[in-house]
Amino acid sequence: MIKFVISTFNDFWMDNAAENFYRIVKEIAEVEPEVVESDLSENNIEIRITNKEKFASFLKDKIISRRDKYIFFEKEDTKTKLINNVKKDFVIMQYGTKIKGKNVLKEQVYSDGDLASLLEELIKDLESEKKKKTCVLCNRSFAKSIGNLKQSIYPFSTKIKSLSGIRTELDSDHNIQQMKDYFDNVCPVCYVVGALEWSDGGIIYRCYLNSGKSIFLLPSYGDLKKLHQLKSKYISRLPIGESRSNVIFKFKKATGEEGSTVPVGNNTLMLGFLEKAIDECLVENENRISFWEVRKKYGLDSWVLVEVPSGTVKNIRQHHLKIKDNALNLIGLMLENKFKTYEQIIYKCNMRYMEDNSIFWEETEVLKEDMARCIINDAYDGFASAMLPRKKAYFDIFLDKEERENFPNKFIYEWRWKKMGLTKEELERLSKAAEVVAKVANEHIGDLYKLDKARNLTELLEGLQQISKRTIGVTERKEMEKDQNIQYLSFKSLEDFSELLHLKGSMGGNDFKNLKSTLMIFACMKLANEKRNRNKKEEK
Question: Which of 18, 133, 194, 312 has the fewest CB atoms within 10 Å, i.e. is most exposed?
C-alpha cells in the first residue's frame, strides 16, 4: 500500500487544488474501493493506494475527461464550419502542436502521450526512500522532480527577471543578494495537483473578447473540509463548456424568445455568483433551510479574484475579497423573500443617452460594476451616488409591478431603513418627497447634485428649500400640460420629509447619511420614470 498525506498550504490556489484532487480520487474510490481510499479532515487529505497500476489508469482517464470538460469549449470555425476545441482564455497554458486537427496542451499533465509515464514517475517518487530534495510549495521531501515550477502549475510563479529578482536575502556580511530561483524544486505531488486545478469545475470565470484580460474566482479557506462542502454544493449547478462565463442569467426577449446574459466585470461576477450560490445552498435535501444555517455551514465570505492578462506574458493580479456580513445577510434575506438582488436590480439597470434615449453601453457597465461593488462592500451612500445622471446619460431601470413594490419594501427596507428604526409609513413619506425632487430635477438637474453633495442636515434642508421654490414654476407648467401626477408635487411632501430629517437626521452620524442616500435612490428611480414618460410623449 502507498499512503501519503496532503496538508493545507495556506495558499488559496494550492488549497483549492488539493480539494480538487481529493474529489478526483474520491470519485475513483466510490467506483473502485479496492484500488484507492481517501479521507478528508480540516487540515489533511489522506490517500491510500492499494493497486498502483489501476489507480494510475483510472486517474489518467479522469484527467483527460476533466480536461475536455472544463478546460476546453467547442467552437465552430467560421471558415471551415468544423467544430474546434478551444482553450478557455483564463487558463494559463500554451497550445502544443495540433493532433489530427484538434488543439492540444503543451503541459504534460494534460498530454495524452505524456500523462501515463508522468503518473508512473509520480508513483515511483511516492514509493522512493531516497528523498533528499525539499518542495518549495509543500515543504515535503521528494526524490526527483518531474517538471519545473511554472505558471501552469502555480500561476503566481514567474521567470521574468524583473519579478523573480525581488526574492532576496542577507548574506553573512549583511549584504543583499538574490536568492536562487527554485524552479526545479517542486515535488511530483504538487506538480500534478497544481496543474490539475485548471480542470476544477469549481472555478468561477468570466472571459472577455478583445479586452486584454479574463478573470476567475475561487473560495479562500484554510479549512479543506469547509472548502469541499461549499464547492461540492455549487459545482454541479454551474454550466459546462461555456466560453464567456459559467455564471449565466436567463431572460425573456421582447420577441418571447429566451436570451442569456453574463456579468460584466469583477464585482458583478462576485455578486451574481454569490446570489446563485446562496440560492442553491438554501436548499438542503429538497427542503428549504434558513440563511443563518447556510452561513454557519458554508461561510461564503472569503474569496480570491484573479485577473489574467491575454497574451504570452501572464503577470497576473489577485484580489482578496472579504464579503461584508451585511452584504451576505442582505442577499440571503432577499432570497428568503423571493427577491433577487442581482437578477432583479443590477441586471435591469442601464445608463441611457440624454439625446436619443438609447443605451450607453460603456457607462452601463460602469454603473453595474459600481452598484455591485457597493452592495458587496455594504456602501449604501456609494450605491445612491452611482445612480446619479452623468453628463450625457441618465440612470434607468425598468421593473415590473411586483419588483417596483419589492424594491422599497424589501430591498431598501432591509438594507438600511429597518436598521434606522423607521417604519414603512415613514418610508412612504420619503417616497413622496422623492417624487417632488425628481419632477424638479427633470428640469433642473443641478438641484439633484446639490442634494447629493450635502454634508450635513443644514445643507440638505437648504437644497430641499431650493426645490420647494422650484415647484411653483414646475406646477404651473404641469397644470398647463394636464399632468395627472400633479397631486404629488406639493409643499406638504417636502415638509413631511423635513420633519423626518429633523427627527433622525439631527442625530448625525449614519442616520443623516442613510436618510439622504435613501432620498437620492428614490429620486433617481422616479427621475428615470420622468425621463421615460417624457420620451414616450415626444415619440407620439
Answer: 312
